[in-house]
Amino acid sequence: MGKRIGLLVNPIAGMGGRVGLKGTDGPEALRRAIELGAKPISPDRAKEFLRELARSIDRASLLVGAGWMGEEEALSCGIRPGAVLGERKPETSAADTKAISEEMLERGVDLLVFCGGDGTARDVMDAIGRSAPALGVPSGVKVHSAVFAINPVQAARIAARFLRGELSAVDAEVLDIDEEAYRAGRLAIRLYGYLRVPSEDSLMQRSKSVGPDVEDEEENKRAIARYVSELMRDGSVYVVGPGTTTKAILDELGLEKTLLGVDVVRDGRLLAKDANEGEILRAVKGSPARIIVSPIGGQGFIFGRGNQQISPEVIRAIGPENVIVVATRRKISSLRPARLLVDTGDEEVDRALRGYIRVIIDYGEEAVVRVE
Q: Are 307 and 340 in contact (CB under 8 A)?
């Protein structure tokens, strides 16, 4: 008998990213995201996973959630599921995720793959605990947990190797944050629990880590800020991503930074605060522009995690060659493996960003780091 793989999609995961909401947990956040023009992200991410899975493994029975929780994605890829679990609904909830996860566990899936973010990982963990292996396809705004592959294609390759018996399962952290605090600019990450996931260090993302608040680290940020603020006197529009390192740059300019958002600056003046994708595109239209980002601590992502407002469309408009990466020495030296990552959801843009990039690590100092 072939292996049994479960696919569960959270169809609303990630919708708040481009419109600047930093999450879609709860009906009010979803309503606001839709009002702002947000489009579903997860279905396309799930299809990308399924297409690669079909190329990577010959025999496996696929169990899926009903409707857009897996069934529609499979059918659109020409895959007929072995079983459809749950009920088709115009709107789905955490309760549906948990119920379908429990049924997949009861049906003895060899691997439960879910497409979503940290909130989805929590729901799956609540339902199955450590009773069956699971794997996350990243599709949320918040993707801080260590249960996700670095992108949908690599998730499929990991799943295929696991189902062939080439990988073992290990405990991995499920982290989550308070979305209301996150929207207010406060980052409070806590350990929620553990899921069993395939052990593949190079293709699984690590948990997000928070850097130490020590004087050497802070002085390093200030030195980077002094150097970058001097570069910003060229009249260009600068799209400045989230983080404490980028905050130090705006502090140096005497401007207030949205710690967990994206701000737009030109000639020492704030053009847009906590900007969404549309506001960024309007701000850079017809002007030379550059993007300043800092990698997520512990993970190394420079695009695709927590800064989805800087979308593929924004990167195309500004040009991948106009990306400036800043990071403290400690952050770069702590990357394991030593690389930066991109996962914008657009393979063409990701390819343009991959290769080697110079990272500003101090005043006038750079390190060359590979982007994958």
A: no
